[in-house]
Structure formats: structure tokens, C-alpha cells
Automatic annotation (TrEMBL):
UniProt protein name: Radical SAM core domain-containing protein
Domain Radical SAM core: 21-215
InterPro entries: Aldolase_TIM, Radical_SAM_PqqE_MftC-like, rSAM, rSAM_sf
GO molecular function, one term: metal ion binding
Keywords, in A-Z order: Iron, Iron-sulfur, Metal-binding, S-adenosyl-L-methionine
Keyword S-adenosyl-L-methionine: yes
Cited PROSITE patterns: RADICAL_SAM (PS51918)
Top-level taxonomy: unclassified sequences, metagenomes, ecological metagenomes
Amino-acid biosynthesis among keywords: no
């Protein structure tokens, strides 16, 4: 199959992903689109240093990168950070990746507006994951270093859920599993069920902080 089409279909992407897997090539790529962030999470240290948009890859860089990745096949490409929603060109990045790949998004959901969510879905986003680590606002807000983080995350899940434009698009509540919240996983799962979204668990990694105390 040639890659000169404007946009591969959903079926073509799935078929290419399967071939990529069978060939034992990577099928998952995490791409940090920015180190800027509007939170002060205990489990991350990016916010402790100053970062600017000037140090980030351009939209054109992402377009070239998406095409280069496609040589190995179609991939699940997770756009993360930092906070990806801080990039004004995020929908263009999603669109560039969506030509060949299945772009995903991990975000805190802060101040997400319905029109922004629709724009991302229409650009070709396959899935959006919102981080919620505890079933209550007090502990989640303390973990994320920003008052209102829990309420905004719940609202963002509802916004993404209600603005989807295609059946394959998936909304996830994602909990970062640490030593402190592992006994609350079932309650966070119950929250996901009440909201009508999928649930994911991501084990804590010390790569962003060097701090192993959260494991």
C-alpha cells in the first residue's frame, strides 16, 4: 500500500498496525509535544524548570516526523507532555499524525472547551485520556498541585465523551498508580463507570522525577 493518500481509512490503519505488530516492529510511540505545564504535580518535575514554546518542535517538524514513522507502519502515537493542550497547533499536529497513525492524547483537561474537543476529534484523534488519581477532589488536587484539578478533569471527560465524531474514538479516565493510591483504584474505576468512559491504569514511573518513593 502506498502512503501518498491524504488520509488512510480506519480499516487501513488497523490493518497496517497489525502488520507492524506481526513484523515485530514498535506499535506504540509516546511523543512529548511540550515540556510546558500548568500544573505542579508531585509525581513530575517538568514544572520545576522554565520551558518556552521556542524550544519545541514546529508543526512542520511533526509532519515530517509522522511521515518518517509511517515507514515502519501505522502506530499508536500518544501525544503527551507537559500539558499538550497548551500548544495552539495541537489539532494540526493531530491531523499530521492522523494521515497514517492513530493519534492519542494524555491531558489534565484544564479548561477544555467543547469546540476545542470537537476540533481535536475532527482532526483525527483516536483517543483522549484524562488523568484522575483519586476518587475525591481534595487528594487529587493535592497530588496535581492545583485547586480545581479534579472538577476540571471530570468536566473534560464529559466534554470529550459528548463531542466524539466517530464510533472508534475512545475516552479514558487514566489513574497513575502509586503506593499512595493503590487502595483507591476500585473507587476511581467506579467514577469512570458513572461517567460512562473507559478506565486505564498507568504505573508510576520515576523517569520524570528520579523519585522512587511514589512506587
Amino acid at each position: 500500500m502506498t502512503l501518498n493518500k491524504t488520509l488512510l481509512s480506519t480499516g487501513e490503519k488497523k490493518a497496517r498496525l497489525l502488520r507492524t505488530y506481526v513484523a515485530r516492529h514498535p506499535v506504540w510511540c509516546a511523543w512529548q509535544v511540550t515540556y510546558r505545564c500548568n500544573f505542579r504535580c508531585r509525581i513530575c518535575s517538568y514544572w520545576k524548570e522554565s520551558h518556552s514554546a521556542a524550544e519545541e518542535l514546529s508543526t512542520r517538524d511533526f509532519e515530517r516526523g509522522a511521515a518518517n514513522l509511517a515507514r515502519a507502519g501505522s502506530l499508536l502515537v500518544n501525544l503527551a507532555g507537559g500539558e499538550p493542550l497548551l500548544r495552539r497547533d495541537l489539532s494540526r499536529i493531530v491531523a499530521a499524525l492522523a494521515r497514517f497513525h492513530m493519534p492519542l492524547l494524555t491531558t489534565n483537561g484544564w479548561r477544555l472547551q467543547p469546540e476545542r474537543a470537537r476540533e481535536l476529534w475532527r482532526a483525527g484523534l483516536w483517543g483522549a485520556s484524562i488523568s484522575i488519581d483519586y476518587p475525591d477532589a481534595a487528594r487529587h488536587d493535592a497530588q496535581r498541585g492545583r485547586r480545581g484539578a479534579f472538577d476540571e478533569a471530570v468536566r473534560a471527560l464529559e466534554v470529550f465523551r459528548d463531542t466524539r465524531t466517530a464510533p472508534h474514538q475512545r475516552v479514558n479516565l487514566m489513574a497513575v498508580l502509586t503506593a499512595d493510591n493503590q487502595d483507591n483504584v476500585e473507587n476511581v474505576l467506579a467514577l469512570a463507570r458513572r461517567l460512562g468512559v473507559h478506565f486505564m491504569v498507568q504505573p508510576y514511573s520515576c523517569l520524570k522525577t528520579g523519585d522512587e518513593s511514589h512506587r
